[in-house]
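=== RUN LOG ===
request id: a7f3
mode: sequence -> structure
chains: 1
length: 332
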Amino acid sequence: MQEEPTSLRIDDPGVRALFTEAARFQSWLDVEAALAQAQAELGIIPEGAAREITRKAHVSYLDLEAVRAGLARTGHPLVPLIWELDRACEGDAGGYVHWGATTQNVTQTGQLLQVRRAHDIFLRQLATILTTLADLAERTKDVLLPGRTHGQHAVPATFGFKVAVWIDELGRHVERLCGCEGRVFVAMLGGGAGTLASLGALGLATQEKMAERLGMRAMPMPARTIGDHQAEYVTVLGMLAATCSKIGREIYTLMKQEFGELEEPVPPGTVGRVREPPPRRPLRSAIPSISHPFTRRWTAIRFTPSSPRSLRTKASSARRRPCCQACHAASD
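=== RESULT ===
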C-alpha cells in the first residue's frame, strides 16, 4: 500500500503488509495447496502431485513478472498465477493444480485468509487498548470535568467516567468480532456454479478437508452469490471505526484552547509547522475521524451487491473484492 503522511503518524501493526500483491498471491497459493492436499487424501489426484503442488505453492518459486504480464494480457486475476504454478511444478503435477475449482473459490477464500490475519492483529490491538484504557479510567476516576449536554455545562462528571464509556463500547465490538468468526472465516469450494458438480459425490468432503487445512470452517452452501458473511464483517469494522472516530473527536474537541481539558502526547521529533512556533495539535486524535468516512463508504458499497440475479454475476464479485481490504486499511 502506498504510504501517505497521515498513515506515517501511527505505527503499522502489520496490517498493510497483509494486503500487498505478494501477500495476495500467496494467500491464493495457500488455498491451491490445501485443495491439492485434500484431493490427494480423497484419492481424486495423485499424492505425489499434491506434494509437488504444495512444495511449489510459494511466491518464491514463481516468476511474478510473468504473472503480471499474464494479468495484463488476459485481464484475468487468477489464471496467470495458475499457469506459473503449473510451470514451476515438476513432472505432470502442474496439470492437477486448481482441479475442480473456480476462480472465486480461490480468490474469496484467499482474501478471507488475509482478513483473518488482520483480524488477529485487530484483536491484539484492542486488548492492549482496553488494558490501557482500564488503567486510565482508574487513574482519572476522580478527575472532575463538566458533564455537558447539548454542548452546555450540566452536572459534574469525571474523565474516568468518559473513559469507562469508551471501554464499554469497545468491549462490545470485541465481542462482535469474536462472535462472527465462525460465520465469516469460511472456505468455499463450490465450482463454477456453486453446485459442487465438478467434484461429484466427493465435493463436500473435499471442501471440508480443504477448510480444515486452512484452519477455517467449510461454507455450508458454497454458492457464489452468498456475501452476507463478508457484509457482516465489514459492518462490524464500520461500527468499530465509528466508535474510534467518536473518541478521537472527543479528544480533539477537549484539546481546543477554549476548553484545554486534555492534551495529546507529542512524540519527540514531531513537527507541527514549518516556520511558526507550533501549538500542541491533536494530530493523532484526528486520524480516526479522517478514516471513518472511508470505512462507512465501503460498508455501504459492500451491501450493494447482496442481491445478484443469477448463480454468479461479474458485477457482484467486482464490487465485493476491494471492500474488505479497503475497510482494513481504513481501520488500521
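=== NOTES ===
The mean pLDDT is 86.
Residues 22 and 59 are 7 Å apart (CA to CA).
=== END ===
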